[in-house]
Each structure stands twice: as structure tokens, then as C-alpha cells.
Task: structure prediction
Amino acid sequence: MGYQMRCWRGLLLALLSMVVQSAALDADEPRPTDATPEMERGLDALDSGHWASAMEIFQALSESQPDQPSAAYYLGVSAAHEGNDVVAAEAFSKVAAINPGYGWVQANLGLTFFRLGELKPAEDHLLEALLQGPDDADVLLHLGMIDEQRGEYDRALRLFEESADQDPEVAALAMLQAANLELGRGNLPAALDFLERARLAPGPTSSQQAADKLLAALAMGSSTPSRYSLRASAGFELDDNVTLSEQDLATGLADEALVLNAGLDIYLLRDEALWLSVGYDFYQSLYRTLTDFDRRVQQPRLTVGGKIGRFYPTFSYSYLNEKLDGDGFLSSHKLDLDLDIALVGTWSALLGAESQRLADDITPERTGYLSSIMLGQRIQFFENLVSAAVIWEPSWQRTNGKPYSYDGQSINAQIGLFIPRGRGVDLILSYKYLDRDYTNRSSGFGRGYRHDEYHIFSSGLRMPLARFAEISADYLHIRSRSTIRSLNYSQNILTFRLGFWY
Result:
């Protein structure tokens, strides 16, 4: 997929180079009211597209009238149309020296310096053009292109949007530039959205044709998505409460661990209407001193999903095997059925059912079955940057030891914020509140009804390093309050990882 993204972006860049050339100059030049016959002859040549002839006429007029800006200005215009940006820059600079406020000279100086690759003077003159007013779509567009080259992606996208709003005739080109930016960041869905907007926007047919060509190329490339994905990471974890002991809580000393993750997904069938995959996940923690808490988790799984109108069902089976310090700890067979129903806009209903067969090696009395159902809803805001969900989940556990059997229900409320790579970094924030009641007295271990409450806050940063690599930092805070005294605790986990995927 990364190779395909580079190919698609290369095609878009080639198409953009042709489109930008056709929009290389601001079209609103001031027309002289008292033009001499020679000036009129030069303007006629300019209007007829005879750029070389116009250059000769305005070059002679500029030399004979060194204090008059008009001839030098039109020399710059004809030179820019001829593709001679060096002469154009010299001519426009001469006009700016005579009269800095001469109509559109600052804008055309900025556009000319941009084509010459001189970003700093281009930005200076384009900003001056905005200060002199009025706002101009070409100026906003090229300021966005400068920001994109400097990695100021959020501001570049805002400028592209403002440019499209300012002048519909520039909208297609602005949306093409936004698509190029998103392809460079690997955000294919956003790039497709901008290309579709470019295809439908008014303006030069060259921009619309460029969008059509790339959408066709993307459609051909996306018809054969990758059949597998591989990911791995290694990192360092600080956990102030892994043992939940009084010593941890009193001293505040952190438990340190090396953490390793790996995963593989193979798609046996991959289509929009139906997909089938097999996968395997591996996790290993190695604590520096608390070797009894070294944890290994292995989980093979099978998942089937699809789309039926507004319904998105997913069914999965997984086997989890968990060990502590090399000894058996917990294993389970899990069946999970989820149904996401798209309602209105970004509002969805959530339905689900889950059943597990648990085998506890350390405490055999906990071995048994756990089942639950899930009813909830999720809504997303601000183009999916913010999501909120509320879920009700009744559950039933039946174990070999009666004290560990219970009937319960929980309310799960959560809100998440995702800010994509605006400046080369993804930011993820989430808060989750979990309230769980147990409805039978036997679940309270002889202490009456049991009630648990959890507050979970997490945050994460992702920064790309190369084509298939990134570094990340994650923070997790868990606060538990329960009628069972030993389950009251606070825990903080800080993790740094280096990750790879393919």
C-alpha cells in the first residue's frame, strides 16, 4: 500500500504541474487609462497571446520610461506567460520599487518567486498582497502550498479551503493540492474525498480531468487491496501499581518492564460486502525485578465481517492463552458477535453478544463461563475527530466455585478525541467511565451487594519515522472504587514504543 500511495502521489504531482502552469499568474492586472499608441500595441499583443512580441514592446517602453510602473508591470506579465520567470521577477521588482502598492504587483511577485523556488520572498510578497487586500484565491492557494512544503499541514489545508471558498474557479485546483497533501501523509480516505470535490468543483477543465484520472487510477489500485498486514513494536513501560500492593501505593516506586507486541492478519477474502481473516497476536512483558509478573499472551483468531445495507455485522472466534513467569495463568475460548447499525449521519446503534469459556490455572474455582450482551449507541462529531458512546452491558458468570458466580450489569460511557497528523503527529485522547452492579448477594463474597466503579483516561502520541516505522508514547490512568476493599486502587502506566508495520 505504501508503494501504491507513492505511485498515486507521483501521478497527481505530474498532473498538478500541468494544471498549475495554466494558473500561474493572477489574471486581474490593472489596465492603463491613458495608454500611448505603443502601449496599446503591446496590450493587443498580450491579449492575442503573442507573449514574445509583447515582451519586446514593453521592454523598450520600460527602458524609455524608467519611472513609470505600467510598462515594467506588463513586461513582467508577458514574461511570466512566456515562461521566463527570471525576467518577470526583475520586472515586477522594479514596479514594486517604484510603487509598492501598484495593483497586483505584490501578488504576482509572490507567484513568480514561488515558481522560482524562492519560498521566503514568495511568502513575504504574498502576505503583503493580503495586507493590501482584497483577499485573493491564488494568493491563499500558494501560501497553502508553501506551508505544505514546510510541513505546516493543518494551516495548509485551511488555506486550501479558504482559497476554494474565495473563488469557485480556483476550487478544483485547491482540492487537488489538498488531495496531494493527504496522499503524502498516507491518508487515502481524505485524499479520495478531496479528489471527489475537485472533480465536481467549477473551474478549469484541466483540474477536473486531473481529478478524474487519479480517481480512476486509485479505483484500479484499490480493487486489489493487500491480503495481509504485519505489525510489531518494542518499548519500555513504567507501571506504578502492577502488583496492587500496599508497598507500591506507599512508596510510589514504579515497576519497569520491557514490552513486546506483534500481530499478523491474513485476509482469505476481502470485499466491501464480505471479508474473512485469520490473525495472531503476541504480547510479552519482562519486568526488571518483579519476574513473577512477567506476562505472555498469545491469541490466534478468526474474524468474519461484512456490510448489508446499513448493517455492519462482525463475528469472531479467538483463543487466548496467558502465562505469568512461564506458568499457566488463564486461557479462554471466546465467541463475539457485534452489529453496527448506521442510523443518521454519523450516529450508529451498537448491538453485541459475547460468550467465553474460562480456565483459571491458579484458582480452579474461577473456571467457568462468562456471557454478556451489549446495547448502545455511538455518535461522531467534527468529521470523526470526536466520538462518544454509551453502552449498557448485562453479564452472567457461572464458575466451579459458587462465590465467583454472579449476575451483573454495567454502564460504559466513553468519549474520544483523535487529531490526525497535522504537524507530523497523531494525538489520541479518551476517557471512559464504567459503573458495574452485581445483582445477587452471593457475588458479594458474604458482604452484600457488590458495586465497582472505574475511571479510565488514556492519551497517545504517534510520530512517523520512515515509510513503515513510528515512535509512540502512551499514558493510561485507572482509578478503581469497589465495595470490596482490596479492589480500591489507582494505577498509572507510561509506555514508549518503537513500532513497525507492513
